[in-house]
């Protein structure tokens, strides 16, 4: 029974920690997880640069490195590896920024929606968690010198799919809003013409 | 119900003074119009503290009746606390009907779960222990529900005016401390409640005085007018999405639901 009471104590402390976390300034977090607002949504996402990044990574494949090690100095090989790592990490960070922007965009849509479905919200939350987990795994792999192209590719696909869906959805909202406005103005016009 | 320790008298005096300041601020800044349940809660608390103090000074009740009165009046104030919190959350989530609905559903499930856990953990053999466990169960459920609500609000980037945030934080802080103190007291119950009554009273009243201090800061200015919805829309890129297209958003939501279900299956 004492164990149960100790768990209760621990739970109360956890609640206090969560309270402190929840009360922190959200703007600080916003700056760290994407760096920009939805209004800065880029016309072309970083995801679209994946083929170029893939090409540059493939260009530096094992045989190329072998060639370099045979012809060039060790310093050069190290530099090339570091450059490769830097490109991949930068791209990965950009990818995360894209995802975070889109994730936030989806939450804004939900928050403005008069009805929110729990299943949908949980699914999106899960997608976000899966992304974050994958992102960290891929980032660690890069940091330790591996180049997990298949993982990066799958990550890009997740972002691309989400981006495509949200873009379609937003386009749809825009079209419907425009249609509603057009319908409203034409009805107004008809009213005016009515004797 | 005999003589009170000086420390308890002092902390009670501080508590009553702070509650009077809170009430004064509520009236002088006309905030009581916006949060009538919160104002009622403050009045009830003040009434409870005053009546208990009178009963302590003029002890015409038996000890058992006094204890029962104190706990029953506590139940009334706790009910008022729940209503006051619901009122503030309703104000905060007023423009967000969807999130409000989601919040209530999540809260209903979580609160039921926490109540079951609190009942399972409870083992009160005496009436006093029973009151303690009831009190702790309530505060545990309340704090969990409130934290969940605040997490939900944070997740959806809903802006909460700092005054409301401070009031909610105060309620939550008070409940967490109550759970901690009550549990620690129960862990040490074998020493007998009389030995720990002073410590329990002092700690719980002290935490409430701290909360009242937070509320004084929160209430020093009138509450913001209901322009939060406008501010929120201005801050986002969806300012063009006026309330007229909310219906369109509902349809979009349904579409997204289908898409997300597909996504959930694919992962």
Question: Can you tell me about this structure?
Answer:
- The complex is a heterodimer of chains A (195) and B (267).
- Chain A has seven helices and no strands.
- Chain A has 195 residues and is an all-alpha fold.
- Chain A has a domain at 42-166.
- The model of chain A is unreliable at 32-43 and 187-195 (pLDDT under 50).
- Chain B is mainly alpha-helical.
- Chain B has nine helices and no strands.
- Chain B has helices spanning 6-28, 36-57, 63-92, 97-121, 127-155, 162-187, 193-219, 228-235, 246-266.
- In chain B, helix 2 packs antiparallel against helix 3 (63-92) and helix 3 runs antiparallel to helix 6.
- The longest helix of chain B is centred in the N-terminal third of the chain and has 30 residues, at 63-92.
- The radius of gyration of chain B is 22 Å and the shape is globular.
Helix content of chain A: over 70%
- Overall body shape of chain B: globular
Cα Rg of chain A: 24 Å
General shape of chain A: flat
Q: What proportion of the residues of chain B form beta strands (DSSP E)? A: under 5%
Number of strands of chain B: 0
Overall pLDDT metric of chain B: 78
Q: Which class best fits the helix and strand makeup of chain A? A: mainly alpha
DSSP helical segment count of chain A: 7
The H-and-E topology of chain A, N to C, reads as HHHHHHH
> Averaged pLDDT of chain A, please?
65
Briefly note the structural class of the backbone of chain B: mainly alpha
**Relative strand content of chain A:** under 5%
Described by strand count, sense and barrel closure, the largest sheet of chain A is: none
Count interface residues per chain for the largest interface. Answer: A-B, 53 and 58 residues
Low-confidence blocks of residues of chain A: 32-43, 187-195
């Amino acid at each position: 029974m004492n164990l149960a009471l100790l768990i209760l104590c621990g739970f109360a402390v956890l609640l206090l920690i969560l309270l402190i976390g929840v009360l922190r300034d959200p703007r600080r977090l916003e700056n760290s997880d994407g760096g920009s607002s939805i209004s800065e949504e880029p016309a072309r996402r970083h995801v679209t640069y994946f083929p170029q990044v893939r090409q540059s990574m493939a260009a530096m494949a094992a045989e190329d490195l072998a060639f370099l090690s045979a012809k060039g100095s060790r310093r050069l090989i190290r530099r090339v590896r570091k450059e490769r790592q830097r490109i991949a990490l930068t791209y990965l960070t950009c990818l995360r920024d894209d995802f975070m922007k889109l994730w936030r965009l989806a939450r804004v849509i939900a928050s403005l929606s008069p009805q929110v479905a729990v299943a949908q919200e949980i699914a999106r939350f899960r997608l976000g968690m899966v992304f974050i987990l994958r992102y960290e795994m891929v980032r660690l792999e890069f940091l330790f010198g591996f180049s997990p192209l298949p993982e990066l590719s799958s990550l890009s696909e997740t972002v691309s799919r989400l981006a495509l869906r949200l873009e379609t959805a937003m386009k749809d909202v825009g079209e419907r809003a425009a249609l509603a406005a057009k319908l409203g103005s034409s009805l107004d016009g008809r009213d005016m013409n009515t004797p | 119900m005999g003589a009170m320790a000086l420390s308890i008298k002092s902390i009670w005096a501080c508590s009553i003074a702070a509650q009077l300041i809170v009430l004064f601020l509520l009236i002088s800044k006309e905030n009581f119009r916006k949060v009538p349940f919160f104002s009622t809660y403050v009045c009830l608390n003040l009434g409870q503290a005053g009546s208990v103090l009178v009963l302590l000074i003029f002890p015409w009740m038996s000890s058992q009746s006094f204890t029962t009165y104190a706990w029953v009046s506590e139940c009334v104030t706790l009910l008022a606390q729940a209503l006051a919190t619901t009122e503030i959350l309703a104000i905060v989530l007023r423009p967000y009907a969807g999130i409000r609905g989601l919040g209530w559903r999540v809260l209903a499930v979580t609160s039921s779960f926490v109540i079951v856990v609190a009942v399972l953990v409870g083992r009160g053999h005496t009436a006093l222990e029973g009151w303690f466990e009831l009190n702790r169960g309530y505060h545990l459920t309340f704090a969990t529900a409130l934290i969940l609500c605040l997490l939900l609000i944070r997740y959806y980037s809903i802006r909460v005016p700092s005054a409301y945030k401070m009031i909610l934080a105060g309620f939550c802080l008070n409940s967490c401390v109550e759970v901690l103190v009550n549990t620690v007291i129960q862990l040490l119950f074998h020493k007998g409640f009389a030995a720990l009554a002073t410590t329990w009273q002092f700690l719980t009243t002290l935490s409430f005085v701290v909360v009242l201090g937070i509320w004084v800061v929160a209430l020093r200015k009138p509450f913001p007018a209901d322009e939060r919805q406008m501010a929120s829309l201005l801050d986002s890129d969806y300012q063009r999405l006026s309330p007229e297209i909310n219906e369109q958003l509902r349809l979009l939501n349904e579409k997204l639901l289908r898409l997300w279900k597909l996504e959930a299956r694919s992962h």
